[in-house]
Amino acid sequence: MHVLTMHCMTPAVSVARVSNRGQTSVPAALRHRWGIDDGGDIAFLDLGDIAVVLPGGIEPARAELRRVLLAEGGYERGLAMIDDPDLADQ
């Protein structure tokens, strides 16, 4: 999992439609990037006017935030550890 802030990157945009039964599909490119091609958990973090999708569910996201924020050097060290080439220059 990667920790990032939206103001420092230009996010890719994917659009999905929700059916009248509340069902939707996660776009194939995102399923592949997140390693859930064969299925897996995602969580939705409701921020009021927007929602954030968390691949892997809420517990891995909480664990990653704890690891980054509580590690020696905290947030700055966590940013330096991002190994995603798409985010390296953001």
State the strand order across the main sheet. Answer: 1-2
| Rounded mean pLDDT score | 77
Structural class: alpha+beta
The strand count comes to 2
Overall geometry: globular
Helix content: 25-40%
Largest sheet: 2 strands, antiparallel
Q: How much of the polypeptide forms β-strand, as a percent range? A: 5-15%
- Distance separating the two termini: 17 Å
Q: Detail the poorly predicted runs.
A: 1-8
Summed up, the helix count is: 3
Provide the gyration radius in Å.
15 Å
- Helix-strand pattern, N to C? HEEHH
Q: What's a concise summary of this model?
A:
With 90 residues, the chain is of the alpha+beta class.
How would you summarize the topology of this molecule?
Layout: H1 28-34, E1 42-46, E2 51-55, H2 58-70, H3 74-80
Antiparallel strand pairs: 1-2
Helix pairs in contact: 2-3
Write a concise keyword list for the protein shown above.
two-stranded antiparallel sheet; single chain; 90 residues; 3 helices; 2 strands; alpha+beta
Your description of this structure?
By secondary structure, the protein is an alpha+beta fold. It has a domain at 58-90. It has three helices and two strands. The protein has a two-stranded antiparallel ribbon. Helix 2 packs across helix 3 (74-80). The longest helix is centred in the last third of the chain and has 13 residues, at 58-70. The chain is globular. Mean pLDDT is 77; it is low at 1-8.
